Amino acid sequence: MLHQRACREVIAKIWFIRFQTSLRSNSQQVCVRLLPSPRCFFDEPVHVKVDGLSPHQKVELRSKLKDDKGVTFRASALVAADASGQVDLCRSPSLGGSYTGVESMGLFWAMAAETPHSKLLKKNVLASMMVDIEVLHGDTGQGPFPGVLDVYTLGGGISEVRASLLANKGIVVLALAYYGFQDMPRTVPKYFDLEYFEEAITFLRRQPQVQGPGIGILSISKSGDLALSMASFLSGISATAWINGSNANTVVPLHYKDLIIPSITPIVENVTFSPSGILDIRDALPDPETEGNRGSVIPIERSSSRFLFAASEDDRNWNSCLFAQQAAARLRHHGKENFEVVMYPRAGHFLEVPYMPHCPSGFHPAVGQVVVFGGEAKAHHQAQLDLWRRVQEFFRKHLDGNNTAQKATLYTRGPTGVHP
After folding, report:
1. Does domain 2-137 have CATH number 3.30.420.10?
2. 225 catalytic, yes or no?
3. Catalytic residue among 223, 232, 314, 349, which?
4. Per-residue pLDDT tens for 128-162?
5. Catalytic site residue from 88, 150, 225, 315
6. Is 276 an annotated catalytic residue?
7. Is 221 designated active site?
8. Could you tell me the fold of the domain covering 147-418?
């Protein structure tokens, strides 16, 4: 299913050190106010208000500045208007983005550099530094907008919740089922055909509201290896978000024209039971890089896509942290730095959208029984908040047709620390 919700914007500009302000709007009702004045010194707080919205309407606030070295810094916050249609950052909490909670100056201190390892540089204190504040709200426009193919987990059909929420961020999303949905086969097929996914990518790229040149792929679990295969063998993919997936083909063989990638064979003897008596299949899938399994490893070094690998450290479905590390190592071995890796301590397998209830166990369609999925509820919740922000920023950054790819390898143990 194709989802689209575009955005219009209201822009206010704040000058620091020397004072000047301007306001541009294509909506007569929406107004951005900067109190006590849109002109201030850098160490003075700014009170940001937005008026003229619909009651309880959700909007995205974005901040941007460029330092004296030309490095761009950005931050964002998803907020909801109150009953009167007003957003007041002194009392309106951010529900997602670069920070969460009530932080009146969050759009400033939460800015991150687009160029890795960059510190904000200000040499000439007599010259102004300008911050752009944008308010994007849900008035539909014609685009074009970034396009994303959302491929959900095995047996889950499609995730219209995830797709529609992402569409609310100004992205055209095609939620694609590949089995177990409506009139599709209810059981796992004998193989998956990559040409089916190729047709979906072609269809999405041809939509007039989708900006080029490439699209993104959002995946989780089994669809993770399908996403890596798409990025490796198909054209037109610029950004691939892989969540708790595998770096090798799993479950059934993958066919593409004359190519067949076998599925990696599970080791049944490695299946154990949790203390509560539920199947634990985490170690059933063997190391893909060992002898006899390498033919199932997906050759992602072929891809020109950017990759976001997100893995939970307490994923009991399989060892997604190992698979993420191996995928990154393979790219690095081939001289590529087109990836980011983030790992979440105490989080389980199903990293969904924010505030989705934690699923510690459930029926596994390939196993045919209930299995443990892992994770602690609060840590899992925090991981979902952090990852949802990262996914949006990842697609915005790498699906901008005017953006040139940055070379950066980021290892993060989100949301509490950093790996070396």
Report:
1. no
2. no
3. 349
4. 788 888 888 655 656 688 999 999 876 655 667 88
5. 315
6. no
7. yes
8. Rossmann fold (3.40.50)
